[in-house]
Write a structure and sequence with these properties.
single chain; 284 residues; alpha+beta; ten-stranded antiparallel beta sheet; two-stranded antiparallel ribbon; 5 helices; 12 strands; 38% helix; elongated
């Protein structure tokens, strides 16, 4: 028992509703068309109706589950020594299942657990949980059909007013729900930041590659221009310049003639070249 809340008032005092934390456990389960039919099917499995013909101890309580859009079922908790490797049922009507760890609200009530009485107790438990405000029901059902289980501790022949029944409903603390929502939001924010950072890195890398490609494309042209000017300088010093096919900037064709004429033509097309003397592009 980890907590408690006040239940409906009985004989001038509020009933006690316990909050229990259960560890995982294994059950033998069958669909329940009638209480006696479900009980006999499971008892047959426990008393040797299985692949190993192994008899197991009868455990209490017997659990009946209702609501949540599922078919009603009856379950026997398997003995601890058989829970890790239970024998295979001989009947297809019996399934072995593991109930996960959970926190449940438990409200005791006497008498026979008829369908009408179970529904009355369910609504009373829902009302008590809502008034307390610290917990909310969990499960597949809506508030109008929250799944519940009834735990029964007595043999079928026990007189009604001496029977002990417990209504069980899985719940979750409200502050735990808030923490889960906060974790979800923080996870989304972290993923968004990571995605944005990745996009920035990719775009930055692309920009660097483009700039590098442009710089590399400028080098051959600049080198060719400088080489042509150097050759023209050599020609002006009295050396002959062999004709060259190709392009320098937008100047194409044979490059020949005296230095001044060539330099004038080149600098008229490439006035920004630092090798061109000031005023070299002025028309004569």
């Amino acid at each position: 028992v980890i907590d408690s809340i006040e239940g409906p008032v009985l004989l001038g005092r509020p009933a006690l509703i316990e909050l229990r934390a259960y560890e995982p456990f294994s059950v033998a389960r069958t669909t329940m068309e009638g209480p006696s039919q479900g009980f006999n099917t499971l008892a047959t499995y426990l008393f040797g109706g299985n692949a190993r013909e192994e008899a197991m101890a009868m455990t209490m309580p017997v659990e009946q589950s209702f609501g949540g859009g599922e078919q009603n079922t009856m379950s026997f908790v398997l003995p601890r020594k058989n829970s890790d490797a239970p024998p295979e049922p001989s009947s297809q009507e019996v399934q072995i299942a593991e109930v996960p760890a959970r926190v449940v609200a438990v409200m005791a009530f006497p008498g026979i657990a008829t369908a009408g009485e179970v529904e009355r107790q369910r609504l009373s438990l829902l009302d008590s949980i809502e008034r307390d405000g610290r917990y909310v029901p969990v499960g597949d059902g809506t508030m109008g059909d929250v799944p519940v289980s009834v735990l029964q501790y007595n043999p079928p022949y026990t007189i009604p007013w001496r029977r002990r029944n417990e209504l069980v409903m899985a719940v979750q603390a409200v502050d735990q729900m808030g923490a889960m929502e906060t974790d979800f939001v923080e996870t989304e924010r972290t993923e968004d930041k990571a995605e944005t950072s990745t996009k920035v890195e990719i775009e930055g890398s692309k920009a660097v590659e483009v700039a590098r490609a442009e710089a590399q494309a400028e080098v051959p042209a600049k080198t060719a221009a400088n080489a042509t000017i150097a050759a023209a300088v050599q020609m002006s010093d009295g050396e002959s310049m062999p004709p060259a096919k190709g392009s320098v900037g937008d100047v194409t064709g044979d490059v020949s003639g005296d230095f001044e004429s060539f330099l004038e033509d080149y600098c008229e097309v490439n006035p920004e070249d630092p090798e061109c003397p000031p005023g070299s592009t002025d028309k004569k």
